[in-house]
């Protein structure tokens, strides 16, 4: 069985992430979307909330499962017996950072974890979780960035914080 892990912060999941998940799910028998519990980054949503939101927006894709992990991706991947990581590339600015992570993961895992890059679909090239949060904070329209369910969760969260 060909499996892959798609790791990230997903704070929150956007149409850009969903596009990568759908395309990866066509290439692999199983795709594990893994939410990184990164204590160093302050997130809008808790890991549990991000997992739930991802589960909801991927519920119609049978070969996608959602999980979370702490610490190094290579250790999580080894535990889960996953050998391919998927990452998305939007622009050259992503490339340098992503290349460094991919090389480091291959080195740390002694070749056990390789990374595959999917280039963004052009209509989502501008899209990032941080820009979605920023637009929402100023009551801008985010309907072209996230599914209605996620939009609702963002609005609820921002209202609670005000
Ligand atoms: P991280 O904090 O690990 O970068 P993100 O949730 O921001 O986590 O992104 C996870 C992955 O999804 C990264 O590989 C990122 O480049 C990719 N990604 C994010 N937004 C898009 C998009 N609009 N199109 C394609 N890939 C994307």
The profile of the biggest β sheet is: 3 strands, parallel
Q: How many strands?
A: 5
CATH class: Alpha Beta
Number of domains: 1
CATH topology: Rossmann fold
Task: Give the CA-based shape.
Answer: globular
Strand arrangement, largest sheet? 1-2-3
Number of helices: 6
Q: Name the structural class.
A: alpha/beta
Helix content: 40-55%
CATH superfamily: HUPs
Radius of gyration equals 16 Å
Distance between the termini: 47 Å
- Give the ligands present: adenosine-5'-diphosphate
Taken as a percent bin, the fraction of beta residues is 15-25%
Unreliable residue runs: none
Mean pLDDT: 96
CATH architecture: 3-Layer(aba) Sandwich
Sketch the topology as an H/E string, one letter per element.
Answer: EHEHEHEHEHH
Keyword list:
162 residues; three-stranded parallel beta sheet; Rossmann fold; binds adenosine-5'-diphosphate; alpha/beta; single chain
Structural description of this entry:
By secondary structure, this protein is of the alpha/beta class. The chain has a single domain, classed as HUPs (Rossmann fold, 3-Layer(aba) Sandwich), CATH 3.40.50.620. It is 44% helix and 19% strand. The longest helix is centred in the middle third of the chain and has 17 residues. The model has no long low-confidence stretch (mean pLDDT 96). Bound molecules: adenosine-5'-diphosphate. The site of adenosine-5'-diphosphate has 16 residues, from helix 1 and strand 4.
What topology does this entry show?
Elements: E1 3-8, H1 15-27, E2 30-36, H2 47-57, E3 64-69, H3 73-80, E4 84-89, H4 92-108, E5 114-119, H5 129-137, H6 148-161
Bound molecules: adenosine-5'-diphosphate (ADP).
């Amino acid at each position: 069985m060909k499996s892959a892990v798609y790791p990230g912060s997903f704070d929150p999941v956007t149409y850009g992430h969903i596009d990568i998940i759908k395309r990866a799910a066509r290439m692999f028998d199983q795709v594990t979307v893994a939410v990184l519990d990164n204590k160093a980054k302050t997130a809008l949503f808790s890991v549990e909330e991000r997992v739930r939101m991802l589960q909801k927006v991927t519920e119609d894709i049978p070969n996608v499962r959602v999980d979370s992990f702490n610490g190094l991706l290579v250790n999580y991947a080894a535990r889960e017996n996953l050998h391919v990581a998927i990452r998305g590339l939007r622009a050259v600015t992503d490339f340098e950072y992503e290349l460094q992570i991919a090389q480091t993961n291959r080195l740390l895992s002694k070749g056990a974890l390789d990374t595959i890059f999917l280039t963004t679909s052009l209509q989502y090239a501008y899209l990032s979780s941080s820009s979605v949060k920023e637009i929402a904070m100023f009551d801008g329209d985010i309907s072209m960035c996230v599914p209605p369910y996620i939009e609702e969760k963002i609005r609820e969260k921002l209202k609670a914080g005000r």
